[in-house]
Amino acid sequence: MLLRHREGVTLRNEGPQRANEAVEAYLLKEQNIGRIHDKLHSRAVADLLLGSCFQHAFQLIFLGKEETKEDRSEFANRILDTLFPGQV
User: Fold this and answer.
1) Which end of the chain is more exposed for a tag (fewer CB within 10 A), N or C?
2) Are 24 and 30 in contact (CB under 8 A)?
3) Distance between CA atoms of residues 73 and 88, nearest Å
């Protein structure tokens, strides 16, 4: 069943990797206009950003916790400050 699903997703150019590709494309544009350091590996940063968000959401759901808008903003800022020190 997974193989058939994977084939269909591939034919339609869909799948979970598309989110990473979209973030990578955005980061490349930001690098091209000089807003973020050109030495950053855009795909690795995209993977780190989305991976940290995925893990954060998983933990909240698993533990049955909710967070405030301020908590979400603080989480996002910590991640961005870590990946882009002095740039964002």
Assistant:
1) N
2) no
3) 14
Closest CA to 6 of 14, 21, 19: 14
Structure tokens, 13: 């150019």
Domain boundaries, the chain: 17-83
Residue 18: C-alpha distances to residues 14, 30, 32, 86 (Å): 6, 18, 21, 28
Q: Please write down the long-range contacts of 77-81, taking CB distance under 8 Å and 24 or more positions apart.
A: 79/49, 79/52, 79/53
The sign of the dihedral angle between the CA atoms of 74, 56, 15, 80 is: positive
